[in-house]
Amino acid sequence: MSALLEVRDLTVRLRVGGTDREVITGTTLEIGEGEAMGLVGESGSGKSMTAKAIARLLPAGARVEGSVRFAGTDVLGLSGADLRRHRAKVAVVFQDPRAHINPVRRIEDFMTESLRTLEDVPRAQARTRAADALEEVGIDDPARRLRQFPHELSGGMLQRVMIATALLSQPLLLLADECTTALDVTTQAEVMAILDDLRRDRGLSMLFITHDLELAGAVCDRTSVMYAGQVVETSAAHRLHADPLHPYSAALVQARPDVTSTAERLVAIPGRPVSAFEAPAGCRFAPRCPHVLDGCRGHEQTLVDLDAGRVRCERAAALRGRLLDPTESPTESEETADA
Amino acid sequence: MPDTDGPVLSVSGLRKVFGTQVAVDDMTFELAPGRSLAIVGESGSGKTTVARMVVGLERPTAGTIVACGRDRSRPARNARERTLRGREVQIVFQDPYSSLDPRQSGTAAVDEVLRVHHDHDAATRRRIVGELADLVGLDQRQMDALPRALSGGQRQRVAIARALATEPKVLILDESVAALDVSIQAQVLNVLADIRDERGISYVLISHDLAVVRQLTEDVLVMQRGVVVERGRTADVLDAPQHAYTRMLRASVPGPGWKPTRTLRRPA
Question: Domains of chain B, with CATH numbers?
Answer without folding.
Answer: 9-264 (3.40.50.300)
